[in-house]
Write a structure and sequence with these properties.
Layout: H1 10-23, E1 31-37, E2 40-46, H2 50-61, E3 68-74
Parallel strand pairs: 2-3
Antiparallel strand pairs: 1-2
Length: about 100
């Protein structure tokens, strides 16, 4: 079976996020680190404003093929980078109808 629109590779997503950051004045001068694993973008670094912290996550989320963003950027007023991250990713279990089990 072939796919007309294969998912972009993690490397392609990383390049796309970095290009998006470089093109946006809010993040262009920020020293951010970007990693991607299984379509999940991981952001790290230090910024001086909460607006930059928010912008970085929003820009990363806007890239087609990104499945989620883990924002561990340090910023004034932002949540601690050491916090637990919960991602609501779709699973095969989420496709089941509520109230029905496997046997019924």
């Amino acid at each position: 079976m072939t796919h007309d629109n294969p998912s972009p590779s993690d490397d392609d997503l990383r390049v796309a996020v970095l290009a998006c950051f470089a093109a946006d004045k809010r993040t262009a001068s920020a020293h951010l680190r970007v990693g991607v694993s299984n379509g999940i973008v991981h952001l790290a670094g230090v910024v001086t404003s909460p607006d930059t912290w928010i912008a970085a996550a929003e820009l990363a989320e806007s890239i087609p093929g990104v499945r989620g963003v883990v924002n561990r950027i340090e910023a004034p007023g932002a949540p601690s980078p050491a916090r637990t991250i919960h991602l609501d990713l779709p699973t095969s279990e989420s496709n089941k109808q509520p109230g029905k089990d496997r046997n019924g």
